[in-house]
Design a protein that fits this description.
alpha+beta, Dna Ligase, domain 1, D-amino Acid Aminotransferase, Chain A, domain 1, 21 strands
């Protein structure tokens, strides 16, 4: 007899024989539900705090707090079914399913999650990184949370990848070939790679997957009237753009017509088993047979110019600059090292002035070909020595890049495009891996901070850790939100979900009153805005226009802009 059946017997059989439950008992259960919900939310908030900040925690912390939440939620569901018999019984089945998935994660078992074959970017976020891959999930989060321009599109899930392999009888064969290769039974990487790729390219899409893909393409076409729909079909593997970037290891196919998407999809899947991808994964300790490839199908952007922005210079991370590379047309040949690009160095502080410009002759550019694919075209003489971006576009790009950096709390490597309407569009963002000399920086910061007065210390509760610098904006009424400037630190009397209106602009938030488990706190964590609530005296101590540094990690506020502290948060590697 299953757990669900036993619970059903308890609630539906024994309860039927009972007399009406006394009101005092029901009220007690209601209070118990509220209490357990608050306890569970407090633990979830604590986990969010650990994830969003610079806390060191071990596997035992994850196991312990997960078990605590599991017990609280189970008891909450039990009490809910006492209050309303038969009405919420299905929650037990959902609870058991979710608990099993979490347990598999904790045990390190490799399991592709159940999901639909197609997931629209409209509903994706980073919670779906297992289903849609990191690249898809992160791009959709930039679109849906930060509301920055990104291409429209959808993800073909890792579940679809698994079904594709099983439908064509490839799953076991590929695992066996790769296992033999890993164990040294087959030394020829090229031969193993070619065999796997050929079998994938010759395989058929499962009919159900093809139907879902066709419907998704028709939906995209309906959203782009008046123009021919073409797509970029891009890789989005599990580990891609995460701890290891896999930059250039997988395959993307550009300017694909809707009818050619199934073929491009197979080409991207096959690219997961290229010799360089297999060697890269093996070199970084990845389990070769646990490749899970999602694919992104994105509406092609009519690229006037393209490029990359680094939010920190990896060579000299202590300098407060951004690096921008730009070429005319599509950016693929630039990131693959085929052509030179203009190089801009921008200040990280507004208005992001251009510190240096190295311009190169841009004699050719990659453009979409009318019949599909891409082709080279000569650049007109008057544009060969003209910068691809003007100062205003560079400033806008810097603001977008730093917003992404603040949200993900890591230096970023961001691919962008300038479309034919001069609109900047984000194509991809990944962590920028750098290795600074943190020991020397810690010593320098300790000496530097002695020169800055402490305005608040240990007051209130930290909601979201991190460092924020900017000018104080004291909120007196909701109408003031319309005047909130980009990059300011919001100081308010109390927390309110209405403050979400300026979360994208705010570098930090400090309030007199508020709870770390309130709605605004949840939103602040979503946006990863350094936040301290319930200080009691923030609006009295911090004056409008005052330049401050909020160290929400240590729950301190300093007068002045401590550039070294702001920079250290981004490039330290404590764990």
């Amino acid at each position: 007899m299953s757990l669900i059946t036993r619970i059903k017997d308890i609630f539906f059989t024994s309860r039927a024989r009972q007399e009406q439950v006394p009101f005092a008992t029901l009220f007690g259960k209601f209070q118990s539900i509220l209490e357990k919900n608050n306890q569970a939310m407090e633990r979830i908030a604590d986990m969010g705090d650990k994830m969003g900040g610079d806390y060191v925690f071990d596997r035992q912390y994850v196991i312990t707090i997960t078990q605590q939440i599991r017990e609280l939620v189970y008891k909450l569901i039990h009490d809910l079914n006492v209050l309303a018999p038969r009405k919420y019984f299905d929650l037990f089945a959902s609870f058991e399913r979710i608990s099993m998935q979490i347990q598999q994660e904790l045990e390190g078992k490799w399991a592709i999650p159940e999901s639909g074959y197609i997931i629209s970017y409209e509903v994706l976020n980073q919670d779906f990184s297992d289903e849609a891959g990191n690249k898809n999930a992160k791009l959709a989060e930039i679109r849906n949370v930060l509301e920055l321009p990104t291409p429209d599109g959808f993800a073909v899930s890792t579940k679809a990848f698994q079904v594709f392999l099983e439908h064509n009888g490839l799953q076991e064969a590929i695992v066996n070939m790769l296992q033999s290769w890993e164990d040294g039974g087959c030394q020829d990487t090229d031969q193993v790679s070619q065999t796997i790729q050929n079998r994938i390219l010759q395989a058929k899409l499962p009919p159900e997957l093809k139907q879902h893909m066709t419907r998704a393409l028709e939906h995209l076409r309906s959203k782009t009237p008046g123009r021919d729909l073409t797509l970029a079909v891009r890789s989005s593997a599990w580990a891609e753009d995460a701890e290891h970037s896999f930059a250039g290891q997988f395959r993307s196919v550009l300017n694909v017509s809707p009818g050619d998407v199934p073929s491009a999809y197979r080409e991207v899947l096959a690219g997961a088993y290229s010799p360089s991808a297999l060697d890269y994964r093996s070199l970084h300790g990845g389990r070769i047979h646990e490749i899970a490839m999602a694919v992104g199908c994105q509406v092609m952007v009519d690229a006037k110019a393209s490029g990359v922005v680094y939010t920190i210079d990896p060579a000299v991370p202590e300098k407060a600059v951004l690096l921008v590379s730009a070429v005319w047309g599509l950016g693929a040949p630039m990131v693959e090292g085929e052509i030179q690009a203009d190089q801009f160095t921008l200040e990280r502080t507004p208005p992001h002035a251009v510190k240096s410009l190295k311009m190169v002759p841009k004699t050719r550019m990659l453009v979409p070909r009318p019949q599909g694919g891409t082709q080279w075209r000569e650049v007109e003489d008057q544009r060969q020595y003209r910068p691809c971006l003007n100062p205003d576009q560079l400033r806008q790009l810097a603001e977008m890049a730093l917003l992404i950096e603040r949200y993900f709390k890591r230096p970023q490597d961001i691919e962008w495009v300038l479309d034919s309407d001069d609109r900047l569009v984000i194509l991809q963002a990944r962590p920028l891996n750098i290795k600074p000399q943190t020991r020397d920086m810690v010593s320098d910061i300790a000496q530097t901070m002695q020169h800055y007065p402490v305005l608040l210390q240990g007051k209130g509760a930290v909601v979201q850790s991190g460092i924020a610098t900017g000018k104080v904006f004291v909120l007196h009424s909701d109408e003031d939100l319309n005047q909130f400037p980009q990059g300011a630190i919001l100081v308010a009397k109390q927390t309110s979900p209405r403050l979400a209106r300026v979360m994208r602009k705010a570098h930090g938030i400090i309030t007199d009153i508020g709870s770390p488990t309130g709605h605004m706190a949840t939103i602040a964590r979503e946006f990863r805005v350094p936040t301290v609530v319930n200080t009691g005296i923030a609006t009295q101590t911090l004056q409008p226009g005052m330049e401050i540094t909020l160290d929400a990690t240590q729950n301190s506020v300093y007068r002045g802009h401590i550039t070294a502290l702001d920079r250290f948060e981004l490039i330290e590697e404590e764990v």
